[in-house]
Amino acid sequence: MGRPIPSSSQNSLTVRDNRTGKSLEIAIEDNSIPATAFKALSAAPEKGERDENETNKGLRVSDRGFLNTAVMRSQITYIDGEAGVLRYRGYPIEELAVHSSHLETAYLLIYGSLPTSSQLEVWESEVMHHGVVHADAEQFFRSFRYDAHPMAILTSAFAYLGSYYSEANPSLQGQTLFTQGSPESLAVMDKQIYRLIGKATTLAAMAYRVRQGRSFVTPPTGFSYTGSFLYQMDHLGEENYKPNPVLEKALDVLFLLHADHELNASATTVLQTGSSLVDPYSAIAAGCASLYGPLHGGANEAVIRMLISIGSPANVPAFIEAVKKREKVLSGFGHRVYKTSDPRSFIVRKTADEVFKVTGKDELLETAMALHEAAMKDEYFIKRKLAPNVDFCSGLIYRAMGFPLDFFPVLFAVPRVVGWLAHWRQMMLQPGGVKIWRPRQIYVGASKREYVAVGERSPVEGLQKTPSQISHSGISKRTMIATFKGAKL
Ligand SMILES: CC(C)(COP(=O)(O)OP(=O)(O)OC[C@H]1O[C@@H](n2cnc3c(N)ncnc32)[C@H](O)[C@@H]1OP(=O)(O)O)[C@@H](O)C(=O)NCCC(=O)NCCS
């Protein structure tokens, strides 16, 4: 169990269990210790006695919310949250945002180095040629209601997409399909990478158009990744339609900035799901579901809803006070990793200036700036090291570009497919193979109980201990009264 202790013992940790007096020396590697080492420690109750508090099962390492648990050795993205540093494969995000493109950066994130011009040409061509979806997909998109949240559509669409590719499904082709590292296995993996990145914009554009009651648009040729995306969303039959180049470029920069952010909630979900060796389409669908929440990719949408609710700069002080009283949350501020401004937020602000030159300023900008200024000099936020994250300004750009509020998380999910795939591929090919992600719990429930016959039980009362009284529609009321005598309505 654990790593061998180095002879010098300098690079190790000594732990003493004061319950038993037992000591343990654990090797430190890459500034980390294996959590499994602690399994060697237990309170050791009397022989043969089972302890329902689990104290005889080895000491657990408890970490609600993964605050200090590393689950991967990764070479993809580096973040220094105290210094506000973000690098993809060693390249500072600021340099990539100026010199690179989303697709070039995608290659870098997935394969580890920047492509040569011929590698880039093949890569871009493969991704762009894998944009078309089967014609049957139209029926799938049309099956959603006009007011379905586009993330519900996109999440389902990725899982649906996987049903077309039985050759990419380890359940059908054998569980080592993606873990062999052989040329054949890598080729199958790369094809799914082309498909998933190529079709992400197509699925997102279809999720957009179905709600507008518009026909779908086949991905065009000769366009950039974001140019094609804008075309698929906006083309209405004009001849030689081309999206505005400033918006196309701004979206590309935003895509690049959102491409990866190491083990955030959604990337972790993709890996957790992928660790069962499920197909990559299902893993990406799971990532979408995780990203959708307001604490993660839904924050850009939440920022705009918050700014609308504040209304004007004059109301900012009252809002800040409400945040400090914990009645409100300042969306777009704070981060699990950054304890200073998110480096992406500066690039987003510059991009916003470019976009506003074309679209005009968003009316919420002044409120956003007043909020930013007030929070940055308020003791509550300073003490907690709360600063703007990438979502604080990105929503303003998306709004100025005319996207509906609930589409914002889609604009985050589409580029993040790249990062999810980079992490998924790294895990599939990691030395030692894939280990299923199966955490442990600390059981604090009832000890062993005897089953009591239904007529002999005393009622248990209390909120959370019994099902709630829910409201019913008129038809449910009538059918329940008709079919169930004891119905509580
Ligand atoms: C991102 C986020 C989920 C990180 O959460 P976390 O790492 O668990 O941080 P914590 O919730 O422990 O925050 C530490 C403290 O700052 C406070 N805090 C964190 N974010 C805050 C925010 N946006 N507004 C007000 N207070 C905030 C917490 O209440 C906590 O205060 P306390 O120590 O007095 O209890 C959190 O900052 C947040 O909810 N931000 C708003 C949503 C958002 O913008 N998400 C996008 C992230 S890219």
Structure, explained:
Belongs to the citrate synthase family. Pfam families: Citrate_synt. Helix content is 46%, strand content 4%. With 489 residues, it is mostly helical. A 3-stranded antiparallel β-sheet has the order 3-4-5. A two-stranded antiparallel sheet has the order 1-2. Strand 4 and strand 5 (91-92) form a beta hairpin. Helix 7 (183-212) packs antiparallel against helix 18 (408-428). 37% of the residues are buried. The model has no long low-confidence stretch (mean pLDDT 93).
Distance between the termini: 57 Å
Average pLDDT reading: 93
Structural class: mainly alpha
* Oligomeric description of these chains: single chain
Shape: globular
The helix fraction, in percent, is: 40-55%
Unique ligands: coenzyme A
- Largest sheet, order of strands side by side? 3-4-5
Percentage of residues in strands = under 5%
Quickly count the helices.
19
* Number of E strands: 5
Major sheet characteristics: 3 strands, antiparallel
Are there runs of 5+ residues with pLDDT below 50, and where? none
